[in-house]
Amino acid sequence: MVGTLHAWHAVERGHQVVQIEREAEARGASLRNFGQIWVSGRAGGEELHTALRARELWESIGARVPALGFRANGSLTLVRDERERAVAEAALARDDAAARGYELLTADQAREVNPALRGEFTGALWCERDAAVEPRTAQLALRKALLASGSYTFLPGREVREVIGERAVRDDHGEVHTGDAVVLCTGAALGGLVRELAPDLPVRRVRLQMMQTDPLGEPLTTSVADADSFRYYPAYRSPALDELAAVQAQTPTAAAYKMQLLMVQRRDGGLTIGDTHAYEHPFAFDVLEDPYDHLAEVVASFLGRPLPKIRRRWAGVYAQCVDTTRVVHRQQVRDGVWLVTGPGGRGMTCSPVIAETTANELGW
Ligand SMILES: Cc1cc2nc3c(=O)[nH]c(=O)nc-3n(C[C@H](O)[C@H](O)[C@H](O)COP(=O)(O)OP(=O)(O)OC[C@H]3O[C@@H](n4cnc5c(N)ncnc54)[C@H](O)[C@@H]3O)c2cc1C
Question: Which domains does the chain have, with CATH numbers?
């Protein structure tokens, strides 16, 4: 998505773009994510500003490319007790609460917004600015629009192996591609070419487990999170969160796998649900069952009914700046050659702005 949106901005500004993809079709984090255009938990300041601008761009691109599936669905972070509610209240007291569209809802008000939530909770933090797109097809939809521009070429099944001279790369078919600028958007592929160009990259890899269910059989009108997500997003840092963390541990499974619940409905009615976070290498090559049991239990408690059959399970890896306050790592690695990686768990959200910033900085 980061590469595709660089192509988008370059084509918008009148340039010809060649996008080189090592797989026959992209298979990276951009397809494996929730598709959450997530404003609610972003840190105040630059990160929030980026997410809000990104949401604007997603909305305008979505109007031109309806197959992206952009929808302004908002999110509800459900709370179950007074301590969790206090964290939501602290979020509401932020200076930037209005910019995020925060509101604190009672359980009944939350059910009016999202009637599928018939289970147990006492209230919810509503974030009006949150939105969603369809990750499995977003890149394909953008590509189709780019191809229609006549200014874009997609070269799949070719790995970029070498930067040669200025503003040129060689792929693993031995072909050389030359341009006015080369932007390497290699996602979490940080070895090989990337290690040669930037050996001390301040970026790490993070692995997550996810699932998707059969159709729910009714609309889930908003994205849904549980209060564990308060523990992971900077916007919720407050004395109320410190108190919650001090006296109320996560369940052992949630703590062991660094979990929160995030859930969004796909256009076919299925639910994308996650997630876990693993930082230690080597990453597991298999997916573990305990986190799925935990998520199924939490979701069932909020929906007040069992989870539909789990249809798919997968893991994904994203690249994240070690300094997590940075939105992305953008580095000039040779004359005319830039590396853009490390957007972390907000890369789907922020990619239109990350690419727009590159375009502005390079004077496209
Ligand atoms: C499970 C999961 C859930 C997430 N949920 C969200 C979310 O809801 N919202 C959000 O904002 N973010 C989310 N993220 C983060 C987001 O998905 C990523 O930050 C973002 O997709 C990164 O995009 P990318 O284009 O940099 O990487 P990728 O999508 O991984 O793309 C990199 C591409 O580069 C190609 N490539 C690599 N090296 C070469 C080479 N040498 N030559 C040619 N091609 C090459 C790869 O094949 C790949 O297609 C999530 C991530 C994961 C894993």
Answer: 1-71+130-184+330-364 (3.50.50.60), 75-128+203-321 (3.30.9.10)
- For 174-216, write each residue's pLDDT tens digit: 999 999 999 999 999 999 999 999 999 999 999 999 999 999 9
Q: At what angle do helices 2-12 and 135-148 cross, to 10 degrees?
A: 30
- Is any ligand 1 atom within 6 A of the Cβ of residue 352? no
User: Mind listing the pLDDT tens digit for each residue in 205-227?
Assistant: 999 999 999 999 999 999 999 99
Quick check: CB of 4 below 6 Å from ligand 1?
A: no
For the Cβ of 42 lying below 6 angstroms from any atom of ligand 1, the answer is no
185 lines ligand 1 (CB under 6 A): yes
pTM above 0.85, yes or no: yes
CA of 312 to the centre of ligand 1 (A): 19
Q: How far is the CA of 3 from the centre of ligand 1 (A)?
A: 9
